[in-house]
Predict the 3D structure of the following.
Amino acid sequence: MGGQPLFILDEDAQRTHGKDAQSSNISAGKAVSESVRTTLGPRGMDKMLVSDDGDVVITNDGATILSEMDIEHPAAQMIVEVAQTQEDEVGDGTTTASVLAGELLTKAEDLLDDDVHPTTIVEGYSAAAELAHEAIDEVVLDVDLDDETLVEVAESSMTGKGTGDVEAGRLAEVVVDAVRHAKSDNGVRRDNIEVHTQTGAASSATKLVEGVIVDETGVHDNMPTSVEDASIAVIDTELDVRESNIDAEYNVSSVDQLNAALDAEEQELTGYAEEVLESGADVAFVTEDVADRVASQLAKEGVFVAESISSSTAKDIVEATGAKRVGSLDALDEDALGHADSVNVEKQGDDDVTFITGGATAESVTIIARGSTEHVVDELERALNDALDVVVAALDAGGVVPGAGATEIAIADHIRSEAASIEGRKQLAVEAFADAVDVLPRTLAENTGLDAIDALVDLRAEHESEGIAGVISEGQTGIVGDPVDYGILDPAAVKREAVDSATEAATMIVRIDDVISSS
């Protein structure tokens, strides 16, 4: 064809392929994983994240760290997605999943250097992941998931996280109490448990409220601040003068016309107040605005009204009280009302909030998380949410396993024992997977002050002789022991999800041999 060059890509496009592409992607994934590795375990360190606007986040929560980091490399973003998937599915274990994904990439890089084909690595990792699930199933503890066991699960999740001046054990009791309130025959309604943050007190003031907390208070100063045996309306419409949907001008040529317009407006607003009163409601939560004159009339009749309630808060009130959300006052009647033992306005720190307690369907509970500063209370909120999620996962998704790296030691041991039965080069990938899993107990040992190599040898020996061995943080260092004896327990679902999400991300990155980016 005359030797003319054929341009397929835009001249400004960049292309990296072959080993260069694999190396770049693996390096990016490893770098992200390494950034959260020092946060793992009860002696893990915190990270300070500072945004362009100067906002500061201090945390050791893997999902929070990775979501706050400004990551551009597409392969690195896959590791961020690992943490996010872990957070969405089981609520904890984000650092575990991220660190494991990074180590799987490290081992894959060594295999690629030894000319093991990427497809072989993927097949080997997939086979090893199945063996890991077998190992997890074998170490699930045959114990009753009573309150004592669930407190240990919650405490294990929060140990090493920012809990202010209160021990994780006391917060764990609050968490388990909240979960028990939200538990039904069909499982735990996680949506029925809210964490409400409030600065201005020590973390030890954190407590459980059997009901819903609303940030908004009465819209009129003369409204009651306490209503007992409350009949509650949840209204999704404005209690204000209706405005035209079109631009229009009205010419008023006389005082009579002006008075007529004002009378019509007054009748409309009075009608709103009368319809609320006729329904029998003595408490109303409105998602839109309430006119001052409507609020004043309702206040005279002793009705409590809060306006501009968020949709999510309205949903919580409905679930707690049995009320029906009505889109117009025509639908507001006695059948639409919910009920609660009390609605009280109380001061929390510098702010007034509204407590709805003893709802008709009272499975909704709220944990009030207190802290002296915004940073403290934000980290406490993250710790409480993680603890709630792991307790729910333990109850609803497969029981508990030993923590402190013991389950990972069992996984690696099981995979190695089965690797000999796998033929060909795929066996190398399976063995590499087992070596990658060792990074978790090894990192725990490093973060507790132990020599990583010596600790790993001791863990394997203890596991071989006793069947269970973990890294226990004790004082300023760590020891090798039985984590069950120390009450260190994790949900089995967290381990399963970490294996799956880390394996999927690592194998996806390994299979990429061409990166094409446009200008």
Q: What stands out?
A: The two ends are 29 Å apart (CA to CA). The first strand starts at residue 14 and ends at 17. Residues 255-279 form the longest helix (25 residues).
